[in-house]
Design goal:
single chain; 314 residues; mainly beta; five-stranded antiparallel β-sheet; four-stranded antiparallel β-sheet; globular
Length: 314
């Protein structure tokens, strides 16, 4: 039976874009929220938790749809399959689970890495996915047979983010050494290495159409990457503190600083409109919060260490 989720107010999601207005909050959450993902149709929101569980909310029906339990360590990444029929989670113990979206059953369980499966990405059509680990290795998996087809080696630090190009020929990786690497998926070789940040990359996000990705780190900068062209197309500076989480749609980018400051800005170079700003409780470490922007519905979802998910209209 699906359970209704509570809100702190009977009002609808804030329609003014005013951060002073109280956001809608999804309550009844028993563990700090580490990661957020939104389904391809933008109706469902999934949250990966510090206790290893995952929750799925139906935002239209105002109900919690699923509670998924199986991981014995914190969830490191969470994502819907591009077809919307499954949810994948990775955990600090190196495991991957594929969950059936209809009934919450675990379809597949893999021990992908001996160390934490710290990063995850689907290809555009979902026929492949990639996982990255704290030991710097990356594996490319066949989604149908759940077999590792390729292992990429050469990164010298923990992998924090991954992104397939639209055609699936290139994979970008972001790591703790501050570098973004480009890998050929035809040869398995690293074809470019870019100095992205001064210090570790702490946050990563990818647009739904796989054209752009974003990285952020301890240096307080955000860099926007064209995946196909393997180049930085925009640098955003000025953050007073490290940026620990990013969320991205095809037109907007959300960032969260250690202070709990949340900023949403357009992805283009135009700065004509002031960015949306809000606040959550301060963060202590990377992975302590998750953010996502619902495609086609300008709503920002942010989960954090206070066991709540906030929804703002941006």
């Amino acid at each position: 039976m699906m359970k209704p989720f509570a809100t702190e107010s009977t009002d609808s999601i804030c329609s003014t874009g005013d951060a002073s207005a109280e956001p809608r909050r999804l309550l009844g959450i028993r563990s700090p929220v580490r990661r957020i993902a939104v389904s391809p149709c933008s109706r469902f929101l999934a949250a990966g938790m510090a206790d290893g569980s995952a929750l799925v909310f139906d935002l239209e029906a105002n109900r919690r749809r699923l509670e998924l339990r199986g991981h014995q360590s914190p969830v490191e990444s969470i994502d819907f399959h591009p077809l919307g029929d499954a949810l994948l989670t990775t955990a600090r113990d190196g495991s991957i689970r594929c969950w059936d979206f209809s009934d919450g059953r675990c379809r597949q369980l893999l021990q992908a890495h001996p160390f934490s499966a710290s990063a995850f990405a689907h290809s555009t059509r979902g026929e492949r996915f990639a996982t990255g680990s704290l030991d710097g290795t990356i594996k490319i998996w066949d989604s149908r047979q759940w077999i590792a087809r390729m292992t990429l080696k050469g990164a010298e630090a923990a992998i924090r983010g991954l992104a397939f190009s639209p055609e699936g020929t290139i994979l970008l990786s972001a790591s703790d050494d501050g570098q973004v690497r480009a890998w050929s998926l035809a040869t398995g070789c690293c074809i470019d290495r870019l100095d992205a940040h001064r210090g570790p990359i702490l946050a990563w996000a990818t647009g739904r159409d796989h054209r752009l990705a974003a990285s952020a780190g301890k240096d307080g900068r955000i860099r926007i990457w064209n995946i196909d062209e393997i180049r930085c197309v925009r640098t955003i500076g000025g953050a007073a503190r490290s940026i620990l989480a990013l969320g991205m749609s095809d037109s907007m980018l959300a960032s969260i600083e250690t202070s709990g400051s949340v900023t949403v800005r357009p992805l283009g170079n135009s700065e004509k409109e002031p960015p949306f700003t809000a606040h959550i409780p301060p963060l202590r470490a990377a992975g302590a919060a998750g953010a996502s922007i619902l495609a086609g519905r300008p709503i920002l979802a942010v989960g954090g260490p206070d066991r709540a998910i906030r929804l703002w209209r941006v």
